[in-house]
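Holo prediction. Input below; ligand is zinc ion.
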Amino acid sequence: MSDLLPFNSSMICGLFTPLPPEQATDDTPGFWVVLQGSSLLLLAGPQQSDLPEGALPAVVIPQNEPLRIGLWKGKPLRVVRIAPDVNLPEEYEALPFQGPDTRLDNALATIAGRASQILHWERRSRFCSHCGSGLTRIKASWGKHCPSCGDDHFPHIHPCIIVLVRRGTELLLIRNAAWNPGRFSLVAGFLDFGESLEECVQREVREEAGIEVANIRYVGSQCWPFPSQQMIGFLADYAGGEVKPDGVEVVEADWFGADALPALPGSKRSISRWIMDAYGTNITAAHSVIKP
Ligand SMILES: [Zn+2]
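Structure of the complex:
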């Protein structure tokens, strides 16, 4: 089930209760998500700790007003971001919630991702994109209202398809121009105007690899809070054409047998890896993972 992928709500079911936003101006004690870049602040130690609770150390100077996003284990959970160059007190460490480093457990990575996505929206929704006036919060919602022109604005979550194309026992993998040589992944891309998700799959595979696909079926989805995507996963079957990368966005594309896979995405938390593991053939045993 893709529900249980990191960054989806099911991963923190029973730990986190989302609540409407509210500036945390009272002193009710609770837990903290402290973000530093793409890392989460935790108490250092041989065993991974829970989120910090109680008062924050004085050296942690938030860049934003603490924002309550819900309850963690029944207590208020507030989110702050600190500057990337803050030297942390000895008793704290910052562990990445994005990328191939998976020392942070999936539940903590998930709440860090949620917090990061919310703060991204808060930063991007201070002013009206229509008239430039300051926005106010719509009660009991993450939406914002413009008192000048009356526009309402709601969180921007960008739909993005990702697809495993199969030809018999072979898988279609591509290398994006921005990736290191030897690193491959699945075809993916953002939904465009006027498209169904299936049409987006067909277009992206055609554009990135030059081939046609059929029998497109949905397999699962994942919140991808970097900064705010919704990844929608599909399988598809090869239906015709010769593989030909576009040479701009995609510089390599080819069919790979499960016993001869190239380096796959470094993040084991991604739906890309989940689809390949779930719908490829003996992939886990066959691949290597490259470091960033
Ligand atoms: Zn406005």
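The two ends are 28 Å apart (CA to CA). That is the main takeaway for now.
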